[in-house]
Every structure is written in C-alpha cells, then in structure tokens.
C-alpha cells in the first residue's frame, strides 16, 4: 500500500484534458447503468458549522474503487484553516485490499467538481460561449473557470460575491491568467450579458432567479450538496428548456430539486450521464435555456482517484 500526500497528488493531477476525459467516462458509465453507487453517507456537526460526507462507487470492470471522506467546516477560515479537507482510500476491486491512501486534503474533490462543471457546459452550453458569470469567489469558483477553459473559449468573467473584497481578490487572480474580469454588486448585473452562469456558494437561500437569466444561457449550480443548501430559485428550474442533474435522487435530497419537496416536479428531469452516454441533444437552438444541478457523485470520486493513482504510479 502506498500513501500519497497533497503535494505529490497536485504535481500529478491538474485540470487538463486527460483528467476531464476520465471524469466524463465515469459519468458515461453511470448513464449506461454500469456503476454501483450507494447513497451518500452524510453527517452534520452543527456546533462547529461542519459536515462530513462519505461517497463511493464501483465502475464495473474497473481495477479499483474509491471511498472518499470529505469534511467541510465552514468557520475554519476564521482561524486560518481551509474549509475543506479529506482523503480517498483506493481499494482493489478484485481482492478488496487497500491499494493506496490519497491524502489529498480535498484537492481531488476540487478537481473533479470543477471538471464536472466543464463537462456540463460542454454538453449543454452554446459552443460559442465566451463569457461566464460566477456567483461566489472561493477556490471552487476559480477552479470552475479554469476547467471551463478546457471546453469553451472563455475570455470574460463577471463575478458577484457576498463580500466585495473577496470578489476583488478573486478578480485579481483571474486577471493574472489573462482574463477580463468585472466585479458586480448585484447578481442581476453579473448575469446580464453572459453565456454561462456558475453558482459556487454554500448559500442556504436562493441567489439566482429567472428574472436574472439572459436568453439562451446555460446555468451550472454546484453549491447545493446538502439538505439545507439552495442556490437557485424554483423559477430558474421551471423556466429552463432542459433541466439536468448528476442523479435525480441526489438532486431531490441534497440539490435544487428540493424546491419541489412533497410535490410533483413539473418538468422532465435528465441525468448528465445518460445525456452523455446517449448523446442526447438538449440544446436545440442558441436560445435554449439549460440548467444543470451538480451535487457530486461517488463515481466522480472513483474516476478521479483511479486517474490520480495511475499517474502517481507512472510518475
């Protein structure tokens, strides 16, 4: 058994086309029904504003599977610590023996989440998309833009965050990467002229409404991953021409479909893996409005863990 730390993992795994292909293959396998994926094990630690998720999945025929433990303690920045941490345990799918411990401190989750956003945009946004609005200014908000540049020619970013200083600091980092960045005081202003909107916040109340959406925009919501989080108002979902999620069950329990809890969902729900596997064409014109809700799946973790370990062993 090998144990790899965050530094080694970061040297081996970046936001590149090979990593994107590995995560996309995981989604495709899920869409083909080739994945065993149990529900998320989740626990809240309310007195510390924390939560812990355990996710896993096995892709039939794969050499290994991963089990990820992912804590999020959101008051940590106040004491100089990161909000996210965790590790992945990688097991042989033939013997059940531990092949490796990836003590990535949440890095691989950041990577696979960003790549999932890019995969959603690849299949749902206009191919000509070049301008993105980002709600949020944390590390995942930055990674989402980096990953989007793998699939779309992004040149302009419009950012809104609850803290203006956080948005300004975020803008400086992206400008250093050669992007034009505009900081806005209102969500509606940030979204007014964009092709893609990414919500990357831990919000517990809806931030984005149908009135904020320009014609033909694609929305990726990736912040709602627990029962008490919401980023999208129900009007965003009901006005969409196509609504997609990673899994319907997770979206209903942890994601944006919670808006219809106890009632019937008044539109068709597509799952991203099937969209990819079946080559479904949901964007019919440039005016089609698409929404994708990503809650994070175990198959993404197994896919990125397998990819990471393959690179680490080869390197």
Rough outline? globular
CATH top level of the largest domain is: Alpha Beta
Structural class estimated from helices and strands: alpha/beta
Going by CATH, the homologous superfamily of the largest domain would be NAD(P)-binding Rossmann-like Domain
Q: What letter string, H or E per element, gives the SSE order? A: EHHEEEEEEHEHEHEHEEHEHEHEH
Order of strands across the widest beta sheet?
A: 10-9-8-11-12-15-13-14
Q: Report how far apart the termini are.
A: 16 Å
Tell me the domain tally. Answer: 2
CATH architecture of the largest domain: 3-Layer(aba) Sandwich
Whole-angstrom Rg: 18 Å
Estimate the strand proportion. Answer: 15-25%
Q: Count the helices. How many?
A: 10
Largest sheet: number of strands, sense, barrel closure: 8 strands, parallel
Mean of residue pLDDT values: 96
In the CATH hierarchy, the third-tier topology of the largest domain is known as: Rossmann fold
| Assembly annotation | single chain
**Helix residue percentage:** 25-40%
* Strand elements, count: 15
Low-confidence stretches: none
